[in-house]
Design goal:
CATH topology of the largest domain: Rossmann fold
Structural class: alpha/beta
Number of helices: 19
Number of strands: 14
Strand content: 5-15%
CATH class of the largest domain: Alpha Beta
CATH architecture of the largest domain: 3-Layer(aba) Sandwich
CATH superfamily of the largest domain: HUPs
Low-confidence stretches: 380-384
Number of domains: 3
Distance between the termini: 36 Å
Strand order of the largest sheet: 7-6-5-11-12
Mean pLDDT: 91
Radius of gyration: 28 Å
Helix content: 40-55%
């Protein structure tokens, strides 16, 4: 893999300082940035400030000394300015950057950072019999982007989905189905009617569980019977409801652009988890008041129940079984689980228990935590019946997208384009924020064609595509050549491989999302200032080349984020 310019600068300077100028055993971390003014160069490095303390010298003295012996291929000018060293790329280097993008096209930005690594990314994880809510939409968006980024960085990625098809929530829904069997939709009913019925049954069951002792005991009995498959009527209701839910989920996945490689279900993991916990009790696990627990306090964590007093496995034991099932299907270097940040403490305990039970997993389990997706109404709860469904959010976005296109073009867009724009609006609104932060969703902002949004990036891509189509029609080809007019764009384009690498290493999709906004802003400013297609201008060919380079960067960046790039809007 070729080093990015920033990485090459860091390595060259570090090597010189460690082995040449001062022979330091270790160089503090250098920071390569873009100067505020391009007249100061293309890159600036804070060498003097980083080394001032360990060397007991002024920052200016340090940079002056370093510059004397610094020679780097592709750099025309190296200047010390206070504690900084500024670097100006050679004209040929700037031309070669664009040539490299045009040559690699859809492969530009790919790396071998994770080459040879097999990574399973588990995400979305909706529960059959319950609504696919906006929390699942958030987890799906982040998980899909991480999978795309890791794949683009050389990893073999397995996309996995773990769904809770047994448990008390299922018993609540089945209880409601049984009580409302006369109102159950028949096979001719639409999928939406079927899943809405399931949602209503779940809400009714969950409320009854809390308010009625009789209903509570009935639901507990149903839960046990479903695990044991001991009641024919309940088995039938369960099979019907499960099939409806999974079919609806697949409909949503297709719209979101997600295709899973593996599906795991609690109905299979609970048995495996039960066996592993039982075999390790006493030992890793211990009995306590009729239940089986893991005493995480021994490891500065907390205690959790893995088998309850009724003899049923909890989520914890099911996750133990899930890990084993994952390993059985795929021997991976890393198993990522994408969940809300509020699950961090839970996974701290569960991962420790898994690693003790199966040492194979030591160092292989990782939870990637994100904040909550909220509307102005605040945090949602499916138990109250006030859940904000993912499909409701998507349908609202579709309507807004269609209205905006109609206003802009005077006609309706195809369903395919509307879906692309709607999904991009939702996904980008999530991905532009750093993981761990809560996000308040504003549909008007998320679907804006002018603001920092997914549709804005799509519109920029469409603009580049339109320019290239016009150039092709006029038989004008792209030819990389440097011009002072495109300094910022060349610089930004050169950063793309490094942004991908940093995003993969830090599990940080927002780095790519915000980088794409910078590229879009710079290109649209360039487009507004300069006439791209002009047969009488010698700069037309280089501007076409620059447009094509931006086209590739925008397309590749949106692709790894799981956002489709339409050619028309």
């Amino acid at each position: 893999m070729k080093h990015t310019i920033s990485k090459a600068l860091k390595q060259k300077i570090s090597a010189l300082i460690k082995d040449g100028v001062w022979d330091l055993p270790e160089v503090p971390r250098l920071q390569v940035e873009r100067p505020k003014d391009f007249s100061h160069g293309d890159y600036t490095v804070n060498v003097g400030f980083v080394l001032a303390k360990p060397l007991s010298m002024s920052p200016a003295e340090i940079t002056t000394k370093v510059v004397q012996d610094l020679i780097i291929d592709g750099i025309d000018e190296i200047v010390s300015v206070g504690g900084y060293i500024n670097f100006t790329l050679s004209q040929q280097k700037k031309v070669s950057i664009i040539e490299d993008v045009l040559t690699k096209a859809q492969d530009y930005g790919k790396s071998d950072t994770y080459a040879g690594k097999k990574i399973m990314v588990e995400y979305t994880d909706p529960n059959p019999f319950k609504v696919f809510h906006i929390g699942h939409l958030m987890t799906n968006t982040i998980g899909e982007s991480l999978a795309g980024i890791l794949e683009f960085s050389g990893a073999q990625v397995i996309r996995a989905n773990y769904q809770g098809d047994v448990g008390r929530h299922v018993a609540m829904a089945v209880w409601g189905m049984d009580k409302n069997s006369v109102n159950m939709p028949d096979e001719k009913a639409s999928l939406d009617e079927k899943t809405q019925f399931l949602g209503q049954c779940y809400v009714e069951g969950s409320k009854a569980f809390e308010k009625s002792e009789t209903a509570k005991q009935e639901i507990i009995a149903i839960n046990k019977a479903i695990y044991e498959k001991s009641d024919e009527n309940l088995n039938t209701l369960y099979t019907i409801g499960r099939a409806w839910s999974l079919e609806k989920f697949e409909q949503i996945y297709k719209l979101l652009g997600t295709k899973f490689d593996e599906y795991f279900f609690e109905s299979e993991t609970w048995k495996v988890g039960m066996d592993i916990v039982t075999r390790n009790t006493p030992g890793i696990f211990e009995e306590s008041q009729g239940a089986v627990i893991f005493d995480g306090e021994k490891f500065d964590l907390h205690k959790r129940v893995f088998i309850n007093s009724q003899g049923l496995t909890t989520y914890e034991a099911k996750d133990v079984g899930l890990a084993h099932c994952k390993k059985k299907r795929h021997d991976c270097d890393t198993y990522l689980t994408v969940t809300a940040v509020e699950q961090n403490l839970y996974f701290g305990v569960v991962f420790k228990a898994i690693e003790l039970a199966e040492p194979y997993f030591a160092g292989r389990l990782q939870n990637v935590a994100h904040g909550l997706l909220q509307l102005k109404s605040g945090k949602m709860s499916s138990r109250t019946g006030k859940v904000i469904s993912g499909t409701d959010l998507i349908e609202q976005a579709q309507q807004i997208a269609q209205d905006k296109i109609s206003q802009k073009n005077g006609s309706d867009a195809s369903d395919e384009i509307v879906d692309m724009i709607a999904v991009a609006g939702i996904k980008f609104n999530i991905l532009k924020q750093a993981l761990g932060k809560n996000i308040v969703y504003d549909p008007s902002e998320a679907l804006s064609f002018e603001g920092d949004s997914g549709p804005y990036l799509q519109y920029t891509y469409v603009r580049t595509h339109s320019v290239l189509a016009k150039a092709k029609k006029l038989d004008l080809s792209a030819k990389a050549a440097h011009s002072k007019q495109n300094e910022e764009l060349v610089y930004l384009i050169s950063l793309f491989p490094e942004i991908i690498t940093r995003s993969a290493e830090q599990k940080a999709p927002h780095l790519i999302a915000n980088y794409l906004l910078d590229v879009a802003h710079a290109y649209n400013a360039f487009y507004a200032k300069h006439k791209i297609i002009d047969k009488h201008s010698r700069q037309t060919y280089s501007r076409i080349a620059l447009t094509q380079a931006v086209n590739h960067v925008m397309r590749n960046g949106l692709y790894v984020l799981g956002i489709k790039a339409p050619q028309t809007m």
